[in-house]
Amino acid sequence: MKNQLVFNIAKALYESSCADDLKDFPKRERNKYYITGDRNDFEKLYFRRRDFLSACAILSLDDEKYVEQLEKIIIAICDEYCWALPAHTPGVESLDKQSLDLFVAETSFALAEIITVFGDKLSPETRNRVKDEIKNRLLENYKNQSFWWESCNMNWASVCGGFTGGTLIYLFPDEFEKYKDRIINTMNCYVDGFTDNGTCLEGAEYWLYGFSAFTYFADLIYRHTNGKTDLFDNEKVRKIAGFMETQWLMGNATVSFSDANVNVKADLCLQHYLSRKIPENVHLLPESRMSIWGGNTKWQCLYRTILWVDDRKNDEEKLSHHLAENQIIINKDNYSLAIKGGNNDEPHNHNDLGSFIFADKDGQALCDLGAGRYTKDYFNDKRYTVFCNSSLSHNVPIINGKEQANGKEYFATLHFAESRAIVDLTNAYKNLKSFKRVFEIKEISVELTDIIESENKVQIIERFVTLRKPEIKGNTVVLDSTSIVFDENKVSLEINENLHIPHEYDTPPVTVYCLDFSVKDNVNKITFKIKLKK
User: Fold this and answer.
1) Model pTM score
2) What is the CATH number of the domain that holds 467?
3) Residues 93-108: what's their mean pLDDT?
4) Class of residue 474 by CB neighbours under 10 A (exposed 0-12, middle 13-18, buried 19+)
């Protein structure tokens, strides 16, 4: 049944691709990024080709009639000008060809694994072409350069390092022995980017991307060395493996701080593998929490779903508490509350200190929008002009007309005891004497109190953000199953609408309702009650 599901996905990918996937891939499509800053048109073409590669390879495992198409798409990818995305290259041919980014590594690994799995079912010409291209695009660049991602503490280290290492194991094992320590050092840098209790600052989706690559490489090197090198023989790694399960919220939602998304699913093959490897921290999950993920190049995940997924029964869903330096997550019987601390210079940072998510049975009621559509400006000095990245899109105040600024010097500290969470936001804004945000956590409600002190007169707008159309009933804002009760003597309400462009290609903008409570003069302590319908 599991294998049939994989083949069904591959067949759907195959049928949704078109003849254009095998045609020329004109460089002018790539150059649009440098002119407009838009990534979407080129990347849709780029990843659709890799979808077609993945589909042909999976279908060829069961039916050799697809092998001819598999060889054609392999050669088409080998003919591409550059495997690195234009967002990661300068647009100068000599420098583009020296790039080794996420997708040079990912494409190399997929091709290396495919020609290894299929062996002489593919022509010698195809296998040799792949090996030559990978030697020129990955191996020679890795031998002759050092890269910034080798010492970074985020998913780039895991994906670039792990897929480079895996490619060398498959095609150039002697070269792998030369660079084994260098690659393992990069994987250790990735691990260093997590907090001591295994929290991923980039969010659940980037944990999924980075830790999948880490696991694929860890499995390969374990088998390659006959068990002598085990990257999971590390207490912190074992904690990191369980991170995904700390991010569950009520209503099938997930914590969407940073560039995460609202409804991330655990990956089926990864969950099965890790639950065998680290059963104390990783469990099988209800079907509503798992899916076949696939990533950008889906072959790796689809193939491992065939290899790794077994017939064990899923466990019951357990919504647990998660207390870390940068986030507090509390799950009650009827709702979930997630609170953000940390600083405003984290990987995939949003300016979101003191923000929170309140989720009910239908998902996020007071939300964090998560990742927006990636463009050139999303990753340059204009990042915080993008609505979803700024504090204006989060459940935090606007003080003296100013949003939060970015930088490590802007930070929040979290404290939790019994049923109270306190966030010290004094250093999240400029020129405040003190700012304490207090959450009183009850069975069907949360009371939120902000206490703000300043040497000078302070103007405060308390902002709450939702994707649900609000209904105003007296001193209550109704958001379907959740409502916000406010004190009309201390605040006045105005509803402002903004647009958010979600991360996924071809997804239309969504309306964001900003509930702006203007605090009256001389009021510096404001309480809101967020509660469920009885």
Assistant:
1) 0.95
2) 2.70.98.70
3) 97
4) exposed
